[in-house]
Amino acid sequence: MRNDAVFFLGLCAALAISWTGIVLGSHAQLGFLAPYYDDNQGTSFPQWMPGAAAQGQLVYRDLGCAACHTQQVRRPGFGYDQARGWGERQSVARDYIYQPFPQLGLARVGPDLANIADRKPTAPDEEDLLRMLYAGSEGMPPYRFLFEERRVGAGAQHSDLALKLTGAPEPRPGWEIVPSARARALVAYLASLKTTYDYPEAFPFVPPKPEGALPEKAAAPAPAAAPAPAKSGGSP
Amino acid sequence: MKDEVTAADSSSRAPLLVLLLAALAWLVAAGLLGLVASIQLHSPRFLSDCPVLTYGRMAALAETAFVYGWLANAGLALALWILGRLAGEPLRAQGWAVGGAVFWNLGVAAALGGVATGDATGFALLGLPAYVHMILLFSYSAIAVTGILSWSGRMRRVPYASQWYAAAALFTFPWILSIAHVMLFSAPARGVVQAVAAGWYAQCAWTLWLAPLGLSVAYYVVPRATGRVLPSYEFASLGFWCLVFVGGLTGGRHLLGGPVPAWIASVAVVSAALLLFHVLIVFLNLRGCFSGGGIALRFTAFGIAAYAVGALADAATSFHGVAAQTQFTYFDEAARQLALYGAVSTMLFGGIYFAVPRITGRAWFSAGLVRAHLLLTIGGILLLAGALCGAALVQGRDLADSAVAFAAIAHHTRPWLAAATAAQAILLLGNMALAMNFVGTACRILNVSEPASFNPPSAMEAHAP
Question: What pTM was computed for the model?
Fold first, then answer.
């Protein structure tokens, strides 16, 4: 530490190592990931987001939805993601290659949304999502500012888009609740979030059991071991 | 005697007071924003009808004001002061520091305005909209000019540990911000590489910028306030290089199990464990602060303890078995608060209590406010970290049981989150006490009839009982 040059070169080297190693390393590995072409379906995956969904991702980002919702399903056997029905497979890097602003998120105050449009057994449709946004819930704020309250009646027609609400969030008589363009874009985005296509890398290789370990099972037909990855019981 | 108020201190006053005043204003603002965000976490309907005040934006606003408003301004002020003192002469190029401070704070204000009106980026510790990056970059560099001139004009050819940490912080922030700007905004990387780059930035901002700012202050205050040479000082440089080389590699621990290559999380586990070596050395070097009596030492001691606990928690939660319980829960928030508030902020508080009487040449305005600040800060941080850990335990247990709905989780965590809100309120009160006390002390400079301190500064630090 006697020499200023050594000090500053050391700092440069330290930064360069972590930047090259972590950021450029993963960029080299994943930065040029191509979509996966499926011969049977004659198309490639993932597919581009529809325009409304791309706008909706901007709304998602500017409202900071990622403060409470993740968009990453962890692999079977690590955590509760499959048990909660958030996705049958883990999220992989290829799922995000067409997303200009991937919203992986760091907190799960609310549920994961990576596969919300294909959730089992019942996925919410756009109408459900709009109602959820308007009404809020015990753990989620209502986003009333994304909706417009309009008077209906003589001279003012009903909007086709008006929400069908029942119970507490029902509007005053003579009024209706109409989602704004931002609300519709946000919901179009959420409805586009599904990880239905099974990429080969989404099912990690599970090594076959060693031959000598369970001799009585060795005689069993081999294909029985094949569907193992589908189960959520954890192999370490 | 070295520790008296020197002419160098009082003639370096202007940039330091500007930076500290801005820092404390942001600290109070960040406290208010954090309090609102904390209320919204357990009562989601609170202020939810206004788009500016929605939770996602409030959380980003509170974090941005805290990190880029409070920590950056206060850390820079103290880094400049330390570098200047160890150069033994008044700060040079003070106009650069003052001008830089003005533009830095305009930039932070513009960033907050941008986040509030919908330009948030959604990245942790990098909520700054892309258009303020350039102004922050240039104004930071302008402030750093003053520090680097003092570094190169230092009295002793072999620099002290506090100088290494301060110079490292001055040097690295512009670099990591410009890398993040290119990889996330001007030529954004594809897909999840953005998440990796953002994680790298957040980790480097912590280990190469904020933590060094705090440690620089601690390494200066502890030997000065105890009047003793640091024990095991020969290991200090090892600790510094360990932080610098290993720190940036630990960012991947938040991506464990995510859609990124597994080696990123594996590197993070190894580095988080290696980083404990750095913490051990810091602890050995600065252990003298635990026996000291002054107010500056008490804050520093709390900061060092929080730093050590935070590093242990980071290392523990980067392991798979632990992360399966803690990932995505309030535990991350607890660790963040412990690091940014418990560790770095309290080290900076210690530095402020040590520096301000020397910079102004006046005793603290009110000793009662000093004691109140100490008690409120320590109590508030312990309550905040404890409450968030409690919430994380409940949340982790509930999440693992797929039969528990999210509404039920919100219900179960509510008491803990209410305690966290109380803690935020306590911290806000403490910070207001500090801000009032600082303004009162700074106003004493205007009072020319009061003799410029014939007391030794240590008598003006308002010793805690």
Answer: 0.92
